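Collaboration report, partner site 2.

Our partner group contributed sequences for two proteins of shared interest, and the home lab folded both. The records are reproduced in the order in which they were received, starting with the first partner submission.
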Amino acid sequence: MKLLYIALCASLVVCSTSAAWAQYGLYGSPEMLRVPQQQNSVQNSAVQAGYPTVPAAVVQPQPAQTYRQPQPQTYHQPQPRYGNSPQPARAYRQPRPTQAYRHPQPQPQYGYPPQRQTTSAYQPYQPGAQYRYAGPSMRKPVRTAAVEQPTPVQPIPAPPAAPAGPSFNTAPQDTNMVNQMLAEQNGYGCDQGCGSCGPYRSTLDQFEQDACGTWDDGYRSPWFGSISALIMGRSDSRRLWTSYATGSEFNQLENTQFGMRWRWGGEVRFGRRFCCNCVPFALEATYWGTESFTGYRSTTNPNSPYTVSTPLRIGEVWFNNTSAMYWFDGAAEHRLWRRNEFHNVEVNVIREQLAWTCDSPWDIGWSAGVRYFRFQEALKFGSLAGGHTWGQSGGLYEAYLSDNIDNNLVGVQVGFDAAYNLANGLRLFISPKFGVYDNYINQTFRAYLGDGTVATTGTSGVPGTYPVHSSKNVLSFLTQIDVGVDWQFARNWGFRAGYRVVAATGMGLADDQFPQYIVDIPEIADIDHCSSLVLHGAFAGLTYNY
């Protein structure tokens, strides 16, 4: 039993010893190979790899020269480099015939030596050509004429043909998308005309087509002129009460808000169209105005005692040391006169037809320019003293209060023209314009008798005398909207009709300049410009293109 125990312990010790030797690599490991020592291993490896051991210096080109014929000679006995064993001498070889020195190929400093050139200058793309990198990954790829083992390239299948449909561009197709887009935009010019299906061909008016291109006979008509008739009226002013029945002040009889008849006027336009890519531009000058608006109103008292008075305070106004109440209160008759004039001048640059869809029924254009608008108004309030007649004694028994005011608007404006083409040459349009203006207002307020006597302020102590002159600059806004139909019924003729609305704010109206106390000259001199003016009416006219 002891022997069995001793044998078991011995086997355990042997196994443990072998395991420990195996852990430290001292047991069962193969014998290390002895590598023979070589000299200049680094240099030899570089030579075998075909690369220089040291960076090659850049060789500068030298002028061409010719080698001289060397004399034959024999090398001297060289000194031994390694060890003491001498090497036998060898004879000098005869050099080859002399030839011209060629410039060496320039090499980058500390770069790779030149390799065998396998490529040439860049060539146009050829189907089946292959690409590869001629050097390190940082170099640009170059095209090789061929590869060692070319692989046949299968052609890319063409996409299925698109379904046949109408073509609006006859320009040749190009693989460059940008060129295609430019060809679509520039395919129609002033010299080529609009083409068979250019922008607006079926909806563009004939005179606009002619401004873009040429007719079959080569005739062009870029110039145009238009004349139109206007009939317009104006909005009512604010109420300025001037008359009541004497003895019954609550019985007001008359105010300045009385309507005036519509007046005829005219408009003249002329200009020239220019073309850019079949889109007409135009420089246009316009004038329009109306004959003078006039209004008249007479007021008497239909009841006893047949006299009228005014609610305006005129007791401090004097004519020939007599209060103006003698003429205006208990008067036989009151009268009102109004007169208006309108003048409009503008110059605009117009860009017509912005809807670039072929055969589109919609047209949108814009305009920009300057405008001068003048509005003149005169309002006169007259009274006849009781018991007298008009014109008696040279107008001695007639007294008048009047105000003349001018509004001069100068500014810039922008607008657009939107139209829907019903047929070739027939369209409905709306053309609004919006502008900002400097309004120079000047006025003159008078108080006088029919014979020319000028009123005074008497003993009221109010500074100033009649007439009262004043002026000021204010900011105004003006909007004009035209709505109508445009019909191009002949080659060079068109008809245009519609309705026009002109609205202006920041205007000085004559009614607003009459104060409650007529003697208040400083109040009269301070021009009231918080009113608005609206003109509206119809227009119709012809356009000729030449």
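Second partner submission, folded after the first:
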Amino acid sequence: MDKRFFIALLLTAAVVMLAPILFPTPRRVPPSAVTDSARIADSLRRVATPSTAPAAPVGAAAQPTVRAADSAGAGVAGVLPAVRAETATVETPLAIYRFAALGAAPVSARMKRYASLRLGERAQPVELTRGEPLLRYSLAVPGDTVALDRTVFALTRTPAARPGGAERLTFTGTPAELPQARVTITYDVTPDSANAYLVRTAGRVEGLSGPAYLLVDLPSGLRSAEADTAEDQTHLAFAYKPRSEDARGIAFSSLDPGERMIAEGPHTWVVSKNKYFIVGLLTPEGDTPFAQVEVTGGARTSKRALVAHATAAEPLKDGAFAFELYMGPQEWRRMVRMGRDFENANPYGGWFQGVVQPFATIVMRILLWMKDTLKLHYGWVLILFGVAIRLILWPLNQKAMRASLKMQAVQPEIQAAQAKHKNDPQKMQAEILRIYKAHDMSPLSPLMGCLPMLIPMPILMALYFVFQNTIEFRGVPFLWLPDISLHDPYYILPALMGVSMYVLSWIGLRGAPPNPQAKMMSYMFPVIMTVALWRFASGLNLYYTVQNLAALPQQWMISRERLRAAPARPAAAAPPARPTDGPKSLKQQRAKA
């Protein structure tokens, strides 16, 4: 085994350690760069700074407090007696949603088929809200922005016209700041399992003159229901999909408090998400897209960014608006069926997103297909997947290893030619080319021999992102592992991975020419990889360990072939006789006798 093998391993380590930071860096747009929004007096952006006051608990929606309005239309400090506002609960086979008449917005989304993994909450359904409405609505009109979350709407429920049909909730109200306007918002909740998390939303605003926009505030964060809450909170992010470009993500941690970003549209969808769940607004096929998305960093009370604010703006077309509201898990197949590239609501890969994300999609399809076809546990699926990858690459690796053997055999001739023609580069190059041709090789042979070793790298990178975002692996136990999407709590797999990597390197060095650098790397590289993968998803460590174990037979066969091909070492010669100064004297001979 030569240096090329260890170069490939170093590149693999670099990929693994750099993967967590390969997230896209969003484009910052200064306020002065906004052009379209300025046409209607800040209609496409929030006029006021997002409130940092703590939100009222969801349960308080049944007894909301309605602020009085002054002559200018803004809320004043005085508080009127409480006005009772209705709260409607709609249940589907997979979720339970609650909508409040105060603000005509969804205030709760409970996942019936996903249990919380959080300590003290196990077996309870996952709840997305953190004590604030999931959406807040405002109207942007020339010269003003009117919040609708202080308006109590009248609620009308229309049951489904047929079994399996959609139940409709209709909210109608008039904001105190716009007494001439009448706002109607409807939600169609379909109980069928295919669309169980999808709520079709539409509305109309009557009595307005001039251009107007509906502003929709997304959740400032989703409640964590994971065993590792801190790790889940690192996935808090917004994402949006420009109509003709790839999806883009904005992590909460990438925003400084108060930092504002503006992404001009048109946009197909915009979402707020954590690791496994999502609240998203999607433009219906052929309908008006979102004109703009504005994101603002929230205040921080710790090192982690737990709060951020995002507002999507949809222009009113003849006073009407429509979008599809998705409140549920990030189930890959379900999101694929929704179209509009919604399965890419987790944009990752940074600058290499165009390559990494499609490759991760291929890996995800293969794993799901194996699960459905073989009816095996996901742990065994990962083991079979790792073995299958090694078997598929077996011919390429065999060819690469034999090319390494040929390169090892021809290396003395190349070194001799380099030493002989060191003062004449042209003759040196010609002689090296002749040597390569005589051994049926080319100058690219060393590089081509390295390529099969690099092929598993994209798969490893893809699996990193698959385990970061795939809800199918959430809470899945295997052997001693409580959850293959989280790190091994006993750190057994990272240790096994490091040991198997060392054994693989040790076998690869058998029969190779002495190389101090290679010997040092055989010790150092397993340690580097073990530290790098120490707290990665245990499923990823399982795959990598299986890869190493599955490569041992081939590495052993090649090492034996190398030992057979190695020239026999010359027998040790007898030590030369010690020189003498001549015949010994008679006295010396007698003394010896």
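Feedback sent to the partner group on the second submission included the following. The chain is about 35% helix and 20% strand. Residues 268 and 426 are 60 Å apart (CA to CA).
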